[in-house]
Design goal:
By secondary structure, the chain is an alpha+beta fold. It is built from eight helices and eleven strands. It has an eleven-stranded mixed β-sheet with strand order 1-2-3-4-11-5-10-9-8-7-6, sandwiched between helices.
Length: 304
């Protein structure tokens, strides 16, 4: 049986294979982003030779040497536990919402081997509910890259009338299902409809958990946990995720430039980020309160 927690980080090799390699503990993804080639891996460091300008390693147990590392917190659910135990470890609200949703006419669908056929459909849904154009471009790049390498998993839940309410997008390998995007139609809806969408969302999570468990995956990763105290919206997201039980897990994201082109790209990103932080601070220091802020604070965790 495979271990629940990721393995320790390995020394980094200098090259990348010319094709992707989806293995038991992780998946090597190769793609182009603007003018650079990127290698991306999850949960374990690359152990084969590869070629790329930039290496991204996500959620490693230990940071790699000679990389830019940042810590990352999330919640993991052990899919080796019986379904009855998984339900018991959820909080009362989540259990009740899942049981109530199971008696409603929700319809759940999922795609993995054929996920590529549904990428554009998801992207159009995301585009309708996204906040910025930058988000849309990043989502399209990520989903298409992973669809081409067999590491994309999609699911959605619809109402009894066929209206799509929520999409889930996962990175998936032989052990892990890691939530990457969760998008719903809860914006600009009334309280009653938001409650329906909240039930549908929890129900889709439970259907995904059962499906991944049936496919012998061992980890359901809820895709992040906010460790701060200031952002009320993210704290509500935490509350929603914590309702499913599981265990808090700490890991590291690591980035390393492998060529001069990669180093130039990282430098440009850092300059851009500094400019953005300065602009945001300036706007925050000079902005006027708006009426929408109070409404935002009153939104419930069902919006997640």
């Amino acid at each position: 049986m495979c271990p629940l927690w990721p393995r320790s980080g390995h020394e980094l090799n200098e090259n990348i294979p010319s094709s992707s390699s989806c293995v038991r503990t992780g998946c090597m993804i190769l793609y182009r982003h603007r003018f650079i080639s990127v290698a991306e891996c999850w949960y374990s460091a690359p152990v084969e030779d590869f070629r790329a300008d930039l290496l991204h390693c996500f959620q490693l147990a230990l940071p790699l040497n000679n990389t830019r590392a940042s810590d990352f917190k999330t919640i993991w659910i052990d899919l080796r536990k019986p379904e009855e135990q998984l339900l018991r470890e959820m909080n009362k609200t989540t259990r009740n919402e899942i049981r109530r949703a199971s008696q409603e006419e929700f319809s759940c669908e999922a795609w993995h081997n054929d996920a590529k056929q549904r990428v554009e459909e998801f992207c159009l849904f995301f585009e309708e509910h996204a906040v910025t154009a930058k988000e849309i471009a990043e989502v399209r790049r990520w989903t298409k890259a992973h669809a081409g390498h067999g590491s994309l998993d999609l699911s959605r839940v619809s109402s009894e009338h066929g209206k799509v309410l929520v999409w889930h997008v996962y990175y998936r390998d032989g052990e892990h299902a890691r939530l990457k995007y969760s998008v719903s139609v809860s914006r600009n809806t009334d309280g009653a409809m938001r409650a329906v969408i909240g039930r549908a969302n929890r129900f889709l999570h439970w259907q995904d958990i059962q499906r991944f468990k049936a496919n012998r995956l061992t980890i359901y990763d809820l895709g992040g946990w906010y460790a701060g105290t200031a952002d009320q919206k993210l704290l509500r997201v935490n509350k929603f995720k914590e309702g499913f039980g599981g265990k808090n897990s700490a890991a590291f994201h690591c980035t390393r430039a492998l060529t001069a082109k990669g180093r130039l790209y990282l430098w440009a990103v850092e300059v851009r980020n500094r400019v953005v932080r300065f602009k945001n601070k300036f706007r925050q220091d000079n902005r006027q309160p708006c009426a929408g802020e109070e409404r935002e604070r009153r939104r419930t965790d069902d919006e997640t």
